[in-house]
Automatic annotation (TrEMBL):
Belongs to the glutamine synthetase family. Pfam families: Gln-synt_C (PF00120), Gln-synt_C-ter (PF18318), GSIII_N (PF12437). The lineage of its organism: Bacteria, Pseudomonadati, Bacteroidota, Flavobacteriia, Flavobacteriales. Residues 84-173 form the GS beta-grasp domain. InterPro entries: Gln-synt_C (IPR040577), Gln_synt_N (IPR008147), Gln_synth/guanido_kin_cat_dom (IPR014746), Gln_synth_cat_dom (IPR008146), Gln_synth_gly_rich_site (IPR027303), GS_Type-3 (IPR052725), GSIII_N (IPR022147). This is Glutamine synthetase III. PANTHER family: GLUTAMINE SYNTHETASE, TYPE-3 GLUTAMINE SYNTHETASE.
Length: 728
């Protein structure tokens, strides 16, 4: 009997839900472990408080004296909560979060010790950064990088550690993390959007970008997950036959949450409350053992931090409940994958959501301005947006037979499509008083009504307008939202900047009124971005051909998609918007393409190992049992044995042919890997991994999965899909 699999199954059977204590109301727990405005008010002097608030709200610099005061108060607060260590918490380009803990404790040289934490430790640190990915930046320039305090994301306590959100940059200033370019992009979109808002309201001083992510994930029994080397090493199953029952019955979606999973969620939500992560929604997803968690949206930088923190916290709490969280975009073949919808909007410091229709024609014109500019930005930069969500694991969703497709398009719904059609007919140049009235009353003025009954909900579009926000749905479940949010905010910033220039030119040179100029520019934008709009539900051949006619890119694999990351257009865009320098853009491309190569390489090795060292020996073992059986039958039945052992003989042959299939393909794969490894050019190498190595995974898997159906269940070494997916 295959020991590990059955040991794991035995351990998982009859697992009791782990008890969770919920004593206090959630609203009372919320933010308990966060050095937020409320806490700062209690602990900081008035000067220090104002300094930090100005930094958060208006990006003002915090001077050294204030930093010292803040550090000292943070320490007092943390010590009062039993904290012993502090860490700069950051998001390097590995995809995980990073931290290095230091104790507050310091000796004073007289045999005594004190707890110490000053402004310099708060503001800047130098982690041993040499093994974080830098895409060559640190080799070329400086060997060191440093972390620097981001006061816009509040410090928090996790366990007994005070965590200070920081950026991570090279000494020469280049960003080595997700947060730095995001902050620059948010700054760019603030500038550009505020300038446009002033056409409508002179009181607007700041525009912030908001993000509400929806995190999908699988919960698998910890012992079962540990019994599978592929899950342990790659986060997904590389083989496994689909179970007799999958998700055909749709009986899991929105069904009652199993108690074990529910208790995990309750504890997770409690921890989120303490950490100030405003989680609100939980439910079952489409696939068995698949779930979703969503918070109330927040300012984008904070929301990105909260998602990264959440992914980390989830793993730790799951373990306490004997679960492993699978964040992978496609942990199981033939079963729905996981994504992370990024709900995005822009709002003003006067409290207006710029992507929500308003109450007056003027506020609706403002809405349309931001709405149409976003569509235009997505159209112009669709390939870059696709690149921003490219990864080896997300390739299993995008471009594979699963929604959303690899083609980026925008869904806006029937009613808004009609509004845009009407606006397309606006007269060139000056508008007659009648036309203005007509537009105000019947086009722009009608929007709030129509949106209320805009209930058509397209679920498969990669980028959909959902009433008061856009929903970027193609983001992968493992992704750091910082990457897509940087790109989205940058392209919208650039678009708004161009828009302002065009409108101003019409006002100055053509002597148009402000609203006439806006209508004129929007009309042209609608005409030129028609091709990005797609209301269809399908993601099959027909749409692919149509998209091709429209000139939209359809990059199904990461190496193809990533090219848009280093096109001259992209480099110029990031430079102009001061989000990333050429060096930073190129470095990121290098890191991402290398990560891709590494992923496929590891998967190839693991698959080869499992196929040859686990599956083939099991097949041989079973074949020997059959051979013994046939020999015995021959002894008993003599000449007649062939008739009675017909099935066994054909099984023996089938097994042999699958063993041969495995061996031949594993050998082929190893050879292709060797060839790929000898290529110096990383782009070519990634292509070799993508198109020569990876396709062999399917061939190897095919034979292994066939054997799973032939071989005695008692000796099959790998925990099966039905066991992984239906253990509650
Ligand atoms: P669903 O998409 O499942 O129907 P909702 O429409 O309620 O759910 O919202 C999904 C997510 O969108 C939530 O996380 C919510 O906080 C977020 N969201 C709502 N409004 C905004 C906004 N203005 N900006 C960003 N995210 C938002
Ligand atoms: Mg959604």
């Amino acid at each position: 009997m295959s020991t590990l699999r059955f040991h794991a199954i035995k351990g998982s059977l009859g697992s009791k839900p782990v008890a969770v204590e919920e004593k206090i109301r959630r609203s009372e727990l919320f933010g308990e472990n966060v050095f937020n405005e409320n806490t700062m008010r209690q602990y900081l002097t008035k000067d220090a408080f104002v300094g930090v608030v100005n930094a958060i709200k208006y990006g003002k610099k915090i001077d050294r004296g204030i930093a010292d005061q803040v550090a000292s108060s943070m320490k007092d607060w943390a010590l009062s909560k039993g904290v012993t260590h502090y860490t700069h918490w950051f998001q390097p380009l590995t995809g995980a979060t990073a931290e290095k803990h230091d104790a507050f404790f310091e000796t004073t040289g007289d045999g005594m010790a004190i707890e110490k934490f000053g402004g310099s430790q708060l503001v800047q640190q130098e982690p041993d950064a040499s093994s974080f990915p830098s895409g060559g930046i640190r080799n070329t320039f400086e060997a060191r990088g440093y972390t620097a305090w981001d006061p816009t994301s509040p410090a928090f306590i996790y366990g007994t550690t005070l965590c200070i959100p920081t950026i991570f940059v090279a000494y020469t200033g280049e960003a080595l993390d997700y947060k730095t370019p995001l902050l620059r992009a948010l700054h760019a979109v603030d500038d550009a959007a505020t300038a446009v808002c002033r056409y409508f309201d002179k009181n607007v001083k700041k525009v912030s970008s908001s993000l509400g992510w929806e995190q999908e994930y699988f919960l698998i029994d910890k012992r079962l997950a540990a019994s599978r080397p592929d899950i342990t090493l790659t986060g997904r199953t590389l083989l496994g036959h689909s179970p007799a029952k999958g998700q055909q019955l749709d009986d899991h979606y929105f069904g009652s949450i199993p108690t074990r999973a529910l208790n995990f969620m309750r504890e997770l939500e409690n921890e989120c409350m303490l950490l100030g992560i405003p989680v609100k929604t939980r439910h079952n997803e489409v696939a068995p053992n698949q779930f979703e968690l969503a918070p109330i949206f927040e300012e984008a930088n904070l929301a990105v931090d909260h998602n990264s923190l959440l992914m980390d916290v989830m793993g730790r709490i799951a373990s306490r409940h004997n679960f492993k969280v699978l964040m992978h975009e496609k942990p199981f073949a033939g079963i729905n994958g996981s994504g992370k919808h990024n709900n995005w909007s822009l709002s003003t410091d006067t409290g207006v959501n710029l992507l929500a229709p308003g109450k007056t024609p003027m506020s609706n014109l403002q809405f349309l301005t931001f709405f149409i500019n976003t569509i235009k930005a997505v159209h112009k930069h669709e390939a870059l947006l696709r690149a921003a969500i490219a990864s080896a694991s997300n390739d299993h969703r995008l471009g594979a037979n699963e929604a959303p497709p690899a083609i980026i398009s925008v869904f806006i719904g029937e009613q808004l499509t009609k509004v845009l059609e009407e606006l397309e007919g606006v007269t060139k140049g000056k508008l007659s008083p009648q036309e203005k009235t007509e537009l105000k009353l019947n086009v722009v003025g009608k929007i709030p009504d129509v949106l209320l009954d805009n209930t058509d909900r397209n679920r498969t579009s990669p980028f959909a307008f959902t009433g008061n926000k856009f929903e970027f749905r193609a983001v992968g479940s493992t992704a750091n939202c910082g990457n897509p949010m940087t790109v989205l905010n940058t392209i919208v910033a650039k678009q708004l900047k161009d828009f302002k220039v065009e409108v101003d030119a019409l006002i100055d040179k053509k002597d148009l009124k402000k609203d006439e100029a806006i209508f004129n520019v929007l009309r042209e934008y609608i005409k030129s971005s028609r091709d990005i709009l797609f209301e269809g539900n399908g993601y099959g051949k027909e749409w692919e051909e149509e998209a091709k006619r429209r000139g939209l890119s359809n990059n199904k694999t990461t190496p193809e998609a990533l090219k848009a990351r280093i096109s001259e257009q992209t480099i110029a865009l990031f430079e102009e918007m001061e989000v990333m320098s050429r060096i930073e853009t190129e470095a990121r491309y290098e890191i991402e393409i290398e990560a891709y190569i590494m992923h496929i390489q590891i998967e190839g090795r693991v698959l080869g190992d499992i196929a040859r060292n686990h599956i083939v020996p099991t097949a041989v073992k079973y074949q020997n049992i059959l051979i013994e059986n046939v020999k015995g039958l021959k002894e008993i039945f003599d000449k007649k044995y062939e008739a009675v052992s017909k099935e066994q003989l054909s099984l023996i042959e089938d097994i042999s042919s699958h063993i041969e299939g495995i061996n031949a393909n594993v050998t082929k794969m190893i050879n292709e890997r060797k060839k790929a490894n000898s290529i110096d050019d990383i782009e070519k190498k990634a292509y070799a991994y993508c198109f020569n190595v990876k396709p062999l995974f399917d061939d190897i898997r095919y034979h292994c999965d066939k054997l799973e159906l032939l071989i005695d269940d008692e000796i099959w070494p790998l925990t099966k899909y039905r066991e992984l997916l239906f253990t509650r």
